[in-house]
Amino acid sequence: MEGTNPVNKKLAAALSGGAVLVLALSGCSSDDGDEKLNEWAKQVCDAVQPQAKKIEAANNAIKKEASDNSTPEEVQKADSQAFQDMSDAYKAIGAAVSKAGAPDVENGEKKQQDAVKELNSISASYASLKKQVDALNTKDQAKFADGLKDVATELDKLSKSGNDALTNLEEGEVGQAMAKQESCQRASAPASAPATKS
């Protein structure tokens, strides 16, 4: 157990930053927008909510392994599954935004396409982290801890990399329309949880 825990805590800390990515998908002010935009927002928010829950559950699974005195094998299994779930969730959100079409705002189509591209890219990053975790040597404690450190570094980069396209998509009227959707309000709740200190 020596060595793996502090590193896995680092992983959990880096991860709590990553969770905010999807939860950026919800505005916080509200205003009367037009009907078409509200329908678009409802479609996206309804699709985002279950995925946000999936991402939150994956976060919690990693944090749980970080706080338990888990074996390298247990840590590897939990982290691998969590990254797979996150990859799937971001891909599903990308598909939902794609399916919803362009929001009825200026440059809506470009904003939508950029956001989908960004979501798919986040999904691919988590898939690659899963491969990285799967390849770790669980038989050698020191090597495993080093490998996890690399994963935590990648994760940290991922959580800091801008989700500019998502932010862009949600500016102005789109954000206001999303803020009115109950499912987006629920999806954004975990975002207010304080990030764990690394």
Question: What descriptors fit this protein?
Answer:
198 residues; mainly alpha; 76% helix; elongated
Would you write up a description of this structure?
The structure is a single chain. With 198 residues, the protein is an all-alpha fold. The protein has helices spanning 4-23, 35-67, 72-100, 108-134, 141-160, 164-169, 172-179, 182-188. α1 packs antiparallel against α2 (35-67) and α1 (4-23) packs parallel to α5 (141-160). It is elongated, with a radius of gyration of 18 Å.
Poorly predicted runs: 26-31, 190-198
The ordered H/E elements are HHHHHHHH
> What's the number of extended β-strand segments?
0
Proportion in helices: over 70%
Count of separate DSSP helical elements:
8
Mean pLDDT: 80
The description of the largest β-sheet is:
none
Oligomer status: single chain
Give me the Rg, rounded.
Answer: 18 Å
Give the distance, in angstroms, between the N- and C-terminal Cα atoms. Answer: 19 Å
Structural class call reads: mainly alpha
Overall 3D form: elongated
Beta-strand percentage range: under 5%
